[in-house]
Specification:
This protein has a single domain, classed as Gap junction channel protein cysteine-rich domain (de novo design (two linked rop proteins), Up-down Bundle). Helices cover about 70% and strands about 5% of the residues. The chain is built from 7 helices and 3 strands. The chain has helices at about 5-15, 20-45, 45-50, 60-70, 75-95, 110-135, 165-200, and strands spanning about 50-55, 145-150, 160. Helix 2 (about 20-45) packs antiparallel against helix 5 and helix 2 (about 20-45) runs antiparallel to helix 7. Belongs to the connexin family. Beta-type (group I) subfamily. It is a multi-pass membrane protein. A connexon is composed of a hexamer of connexins.
């Protein structure tokens, strides 16, 4: 791929053809990633080390932590961010290869339809991620986790485990739900903006 294609691709990703799309890029790329990268590490970085059960033994702690966290929240949200970026990345790669200018995307019906499809696909992926987050993490992190250690052939099948900074994790969890909802709203608003531009209610950039 030539440098011109790479430049067109990067410009398309950073400067979508709609005003709301550009705000979405700013919100998604800056605020959401900063929140996850910096604050997410501060909240969840040492969770496995401070997760303790009764009896406080390494094998019990590790077994119960793996049961408590089938996937760590940081990994899940990082995968969510990457997967949600894929539809837009494919569109802008296509536009770069076809030498489609950003201002021409809303002028031709086929380009507009392809772009709307990529935005709609982002919405679907965000909704699926929202549902998976509910299944994996719920809406609240409890201070006590009851772990089934029957597979370890312990005397007691159920043991109590202490979850560190559970209140901070609950706040962070709600924040990530909120970010997902905001992103979905922005995507819907972007489709609405495109429709208004196509119908002539708004001036095309």
């Amino acid at each position: 791929m030539s440098p011109n294609y790479i430049r067109s691709f990067s410009e398309g990703c950073l400067r979508p053809p709609t005003v709301i799309g550009q705000f979405h890029t700013l919100f998604f790329g800056s605020i959401r990633m900063f929140f996850l990268g910096v604050l997410g590490f501060a909240v969840y970085g040492n969770e496995a080390l401070h997760f303790s059960c009764d009896p406080d033994k390494r094998e019990v702690n590790l077994f119960c932590y793996n049961q408590f966290r089938p996937i760590t929240p940081q990994v899940f949200w990082a995968l969510q961010l990457v997967i949600v970026l894929v539809p837009g990345a494919f569109f802008h790669l296509y536009a770069a290869c076809k030498s489609i200018k950003q201002e021409d995307i809303l002028q031709k019906s086929s380009y507009t339809g392809f772009y709307i499809f990529s935005v709609f696909l982002r919405i679907v992926l965000e909704v699926v991620a929202f549902w998976l987050q509910i299944q994996l993490f719920g809406f609240k992190v409890n201070a006590i986790y009851m772990c089934d250690v029957g597979a370890l052939e312990k005397k007691f099948n159920i043991t109590r485990c202490m979850v560190p900074e559970h209140f901070e994790k609950t706040i962070f969890l709600i924040a990530m739900y909120t970010f997902t909802v905001i992103t979905v709203i922005l995507c819907i608003a972007e489709i609405f903006e495109i429709s208004c531009r196509r119908l002539g209610f708004l001036k095309t950039q």
